[in-house]
Amino acid sequence: MKLKIKRLCGLKKTALKDNLVEVQRFVSNPRYICCKCARVANDGSKLCKPEKMCS
Ligand SMILES: [Zn+2]
Most CB within 10 Å of its CB: which of 3, 6, 20, 47? Predict the structure, then answer.
């Protein structure tokens, strides 16, 4: 499947459903949290306001 998701923030419900496997890969080992949306991701570039998580 082609990767269409640039950011987890503001992801539409349909986009999430279509890319659920990919999204799970992005959040499986979260090291960043978005200060605006409270979403987490392995990679800070997937969030609109990434902040490194402690621990
Ligand atoms: Zn965000």
Answer: 47
